[in-house]
Fold each of these.
Amino acid sequence: MKKLFSLLVLCLCVFHLQAQFVSMQIVEAYSPKNDIRSISFDKAGNLFAATYGGVYKQVNTGWQLVSDEDTYLESFLIDGAGRLWMSGWGKGVYLAEKGTQIFERVKEIPTSANVLMEDMNGHIWAGLWQGGVMMGEGNKWTNFAVKDNNLAGNSVLSLACDSNNKIWIGTYLGLSSYDGKLWTSYTVNNSKLPDYIVYALAAGKNNRIWAGTCKGVTLLNGKGEIEKTYDTSNSPLSDNVIISLVEDSKGRLWVGSYKGLDMFDGKNWKKYTTENSNLPDNRIQVMTLHNNKLYIGTSSGISVIDVK
């Protein structure tokens, strides 16, 4: 009887360990449609997933394709006006007006965007490959590049907007910020930034910024000063190459890498991988918060965890 009780307790512990996430796929097969590049929600709460096989909207019957199926997506955005923005690799940036699924190319943007973002003023930012960053205000677009501004690099990998509407730009050659007038850049040569490549950015409480690099995750305080870098040598971080970041409403940092998902509450770390949870994949490509839930895009589908 004692052995049976012990076995039951062990089974319950294993179930609890393996059941943190609710997972879903666009199709129940190995497919580029399950390679999630972006997760967005419209004002009605509808979930949109941008993949390497098009953009899909979650509906009662499953998933509805809202773009060309062969669109190899890198970035996707639903702005405050309900318009859909997307950029496929090498195909430029496309826009569909609210209530339509008719995507038309934004002619003012010369190339595809690695990342798309809307700031607090409703301006659209597009981080380009070798073209700097472009800011759209209505039909007017302004290009910011290394040549004329203090942008760290012209190949933009990540964007974030802090609570003061300062724009943060991660590139292959460092990190930059722009407050509407002044530019500031951080590199390994002029700051404590541990690496040139900034794959991910996240804005947090007290106007802080998290920067995900190839040598860990770096914290910048509200004054724009680099306070600390967490890496595998000074923390339980799963990997030094950080590809996605988000800070939740409780101030907890969620860190995505090629080796799983880490959560840091300011004191303690918690690790989630395919080995100790029901995550479908250890490659954590994108994360989005919605209604106290964290939506995690992997190369094998979407996982959701409650973060109340």
Amino acid sequence: MGGSIRTTDGRGRLGGVLSGLAVAVGCVLFLGGFAWGAVLYRPYTVPTDSMNPTVTAGDRVLAQRIDGSEVRRGDVVVFTDARWGGLPMIKRVVGLDGDRVACCDADGRLTVNGTPVPEPYLRSQGWGGKEAASPTGFSATVPDGHLFLLGDQRAGSQDSRVHLQEPGGGSVPRGAVTARLDAVVWPVDGAAVVDRPLGFAALPGGVSEPGPVRALGWAVLAGAVLVLGGAAYGPLARLGAGRGSGAGRGSDAGRGRGSGSTGPGAAPGVRPPGRARDGAPDGSPGRAPADG
């Protein structure tokens, strides 16, 4: 009866349609988010601490697949260069084609074309003094089609400063870049989006636009919620219907017990009419017991 009641007023049927629609949309968002993410992004494991504290050794990161022409100052990029060991490395771009990169000015800051660049992502490097942006001074002009790269852990990073005497003055060809870091996904307590540094925004060309990692993350999360919510509707609806039908049966039984019926189902203490207490017909005297 519970099923017929639900379908009679249409609520059960409508709920089923909506739950199915929620599951379908959720699957599209969830699977579509993962599929699109696999096209746009590539996972990497950070090999060293040279980019600490932005990322540290062992972190699992997502890097958006890009072409070298899309790189802007401040980007943290993945690149491979034979002169740097031929293995994927992660560094921050601080200079583009034609830039004059130097360190340090009177306040210990990195300069690009004479403009000081604040770098809030740098932490105490441990060499004292004014905590300059580099423990050693340097100056280099970036050749056309190249990038100048530094690690955020300036005290120990093996970056463009180490290769200043090589062809290209320590710079890396744009074509060596394969991806741009967008997010840290592991460990969980360190998961975060890698924001673009505003210190380079005032320079010509500005900084790159954030990648779609946030949108993809929200799509996957929303999809999971819709799938779980839609799948849970059926069991919850059946549970609610079961409780409602049980309450109805209890009410019907109570009304039956309160009626004046006789026979096996009659209320206690009610005698059927036509019989006296001792079994004689009503109105006739009972038979007296025989004398011993």
